[in-house]
From TrEMBL, chain A:
<comment type="similarity">
    <text>Belongs to the homoserine dehydrogenase family.</text>
</comment>
<dbReference type="InterPro" id="IPR036291">
    <property type="entry name" value="NAD(P)-bd_dom_sf"/>
</dbReference>
<dbReference type="InterPro" id="IPR019811">
    <property type="entry name" value="HDH_CS"/>
</dbReference>
<dbReference type="GO" id="GO:0009088">
    <property type="term" value="P:threonine biosynthetic process"/>
</dbReference>
<feature type="binding site">
    <location>
        <begin position="10"/>
        <end position="15"/>
    </location>
    <ligand>
        <name>NADP(+)</name>
    </ligand>
</feature>
<feature type="region of interest" description="Disordered">
    <location>
        <begin position="42"/>
        <end position="63"/>
    </location>
</feature>
<dbReference type="InterPro" id="IPR001342">
    <property type="entry name" value="HDH_cat"/>
</dbReference>
<feature type="binding site">
    <location>
        <position position="217"/>
    </location>
    <ligand>
        <name>L-homoserine</name>
    </ligand>
</feature>
<dbReference type="InterPro" id="IPR022697">
    <property type="entry name" value="HDH_short"/>
</dbReference>
<protein>
    <recommendedName>
        <fullName>homoserine dehydrogenase</fullName>
        <ecNumber>1.1.1.3</ecNumber>
    </recommendedName>
</protein>
<feature type="binding site">
    <location>
        <position position="133"/>
    </location>
    <ligand>
        <name>NADPH</name>
    </ligand>
</feature>
<dbReference type="GO" id="GO:0004412">
    <property type="term" value="F:homoserine dehydrogenase activity"/>
</dbReference>
<keyword id="KW-0521">NADP</keyword>
<feature type="domain" description="Homoserine dehydrogenase catalytic">
    <location>
        <begin position="165"/>
        <end position="336"/>
    </location>
</feature>
<feature type="active site" description="Proton donor">
    <location>
        <position position="232"/>
    </location>
</feature>
<dbReference type="Pfam" id="PF00742">
    <property type="entry name" value="Homoserine_dh"/>
</dbReference>
<keyword id="KW-0560">Oxidoreductase</keyword>
């Protein structure tokens, strides 16, 4: 596999981990942007050919020489609270890149700026690898139409289940042979419920503890109200049904109303409660569900698990870290590795 | 019980080689000495074969009685007479016949259960006829005024699980209760 030249939009935990790990996977980072600035190959003096485009393209997809930006210095700037680079954020689209890694924060509704970034890259016949859930949860059909008209491809393994191979598993099984996908796809909600159950603590107590530990964000609403998990199951339903779903089609209940006593009652009959989602070709639901205490779906802590119900292969489970910078970056880079050379 | 065996197990229950059929009778007994014996009398006197008696003294119905499930076999012609004799003893019969619930599932209800009349909620769930409430446990840590939780264990036929849950959802929505459903469909 030839290495790809990556332009990375977003320098949060996932974007920066992709930048840091890209070299290990044989790829080069030719640009990285955050919301206020960008560092691109031709601005570092490392690649005189990058701005003209033709020189690099001459070698038919294989990268020529050291055109990578200085990732460490870009991230050091970010750590000091400065923009990653001195050029405007859009300049990452002007360098000669093969793959746009879209890792800006997930937004609902119009899914901007992620959707705009993806469509700009596709219009230029570049590949797009998403870590941002918005474009595939909220505007899946539009995005696929743009991809259909482009020489570039769209992949989005990292949007569902972090490091866990979920979409590639469905791809291997073929979507038609998967009847349902269920599971636990929000680590924060799972941490809260599993700790409430094992320690007999109240919701508010455990949530505060999770915030102290950095497991829950300062504003954990999207995690505890089920939105984050719902976006992932909407993406799964889109993959199974070849589109047609957005967040508003999902039936979503959060865990805010689950008292400790509910977990205690569930335990009387060997059950526990987890925030479980389900995606089928018919629809999407996410809510607290009773599952056997020692069953596969009762994962503990921030662990995620995905259950595939298949036509020919029975029930399969994939489990692991559903979030985290380096973890999610491995899913991004696995997608990059699956792309054809341009 | 594995799902694959359900079909054949049902057949085996309902016909036997000596023209007996298998039946399940579900009763509720007062927690008083001799009640079970009195209930079994009409069954054995009619020449039925007792196959199993499921009787858990520590489980109570919402009415405070002890649920008892009796599996028996007898010639079909004798079954109705047997049930009549049993009824004559005053024992409440919850179910008598060849139909048998396949499995139990739990649901947890959260909300103002006491204020919204839990026993009426249970009665309405039973009234849908899709499931029988076999066990209820209630936790009201904030007293009867505050939000509380109840775990209902339902006996239900495999094919009626979704309908039973939908029926519970309907009652719960009306009473503003949250239902924590079991994950069905998945072999979790």
């Amino acid at each position: 596999m030839a290495g790809h030249r990556l332009a990375i939009a977003g320098a949060g935990s996932v974007g920066r981990s992709v930048a840091e790990l890209a070299g290990e996977y044989g790829h080069e980072v030719v640009g990285i942007a955050d919301s206020t600035g960008a560092m691109v190959a031709d601005s570092t003096g490392g690649a005189s050919a990058a701005s003209s485009g033709e020189a690099a393209a001459d070698s038919s997809g294989t990268t020529t020489g050291d055109i990578s930006i200085d990732v460490a210095s870009a991230l050091a700037r970010k750590d000091r609270g400065e923009p990653v680079g001195d050029t405007a954020p859009e300049t990452i689209f002007e360098v000669d890149y093969d793959v746009l890694v879209e890792a800006t924060p997930t937004t609902l509704g119009d899914a901007e700026p992620g959707f705009g970034h993806a469509s700009r890259a596709l219009a230029a016949d570049r590949h797009v690898v998403l870590a941002n859930k918005g474009p595939v949860a909220e505007r899946y059909d539009e995005l696929q139409r743009l991809a259909g008209a482009s020489a570039g491809c769209v992949r989005f393994e990292a949007t569902v289940g972090g490091a866990i191979p979920v979409l590639s598993t469905i791809e291997d099984l073929t979507p038609d042979a998967v009847t349902a996908v269920r599971g636990v796809l929000n680590g924060t909600a799972n941490f809260v419920l599993s700790r409430m159950a094992t320690e007999g603590l109240d919701y508010e107590h455990v949530l505060a503890e999770a915030q102290d530990m950095g497991v829950a964000e300062a504003d954990p609403s999207f995690d505890v109200d089920g939105t984050d998990a719902a976006l992932k199951f909407v993406i799964l339903a889109n993959v199974l049904a070849d589109g047609g779903f957005s967040l508003e089609d999902a039936d979503v209940t959060g865990i805010e109303g689950v008292p400790r006593s509910a977990l205690e009652l569930a335990a009387e009959d060997g059950q526990t409660i987890r925030l479980v989602g389900e995606a089928t070709r018919e629809g999407v639901s996410v809510g607290p569900r009773l599952v056997p205490e020692h069953g596969p779906l009762a994962v503990s802590g921030t662990r995620n698990i995905v259950q595939f119900e298949t036509e020919h292969a029975g029930t399969l489970h994939n489990s692991g870290a559903g979030a985290g910078g380096p973890e999610t970056a491995t899913a991004v880079l696995a997608d990059v590795g699956r792309l054809p050379s341009r | 019980m594995s799902e694959d065996n359900d079909g054949s197990a049902t057949t085996a229950r309902s016909t036997t080689d000596d023209e007996h059929a298998a039946y399940t009778i579900r009763l509720e007994l007062e927690d008083e000495p001799g009640r079970l014996q009195r209930a079994l009398g009409p069954i054995t006197e009619h020449g039925a074969n007792l196959r199993s008696i499921h009787h858990e003294r520590d489980k109570r119905t919402p009415r405070g009685t002890i649920p008892v499930e009796i599996d028996l076999s007898c010639p079909p012609a004798q079954f109705d007479g047997l049930v009549e004799r049993l009824e004559a003893t005053g024992v409440p019969i919850i179910q008598a016949g060849e139909r048998r619930y396949d499995r139990t599932v739990n649901v947890v209800l959260i909300g103002h259960l006491v204020d919204s009349d839990l026993s009426e909620t249970l009665a309405r769930i039973e009234a849908f006829g899709r499931a029988s409430v076999v066990d209820v446990s209630l936790a009201a840590p904030e007293g009867t005024e505050g939000a509380s939780c109840a775990r209902l264990q339902l006996a239900v036929e495999d094919e009626s699980v979704a309908d039973a849950l939908a029926a519970i959802g309907e009652v719960a929505a009306e009473k503003d209760l949250t239902v924590v459903e079991p994950l069905i469909g998945g072999r979790s």
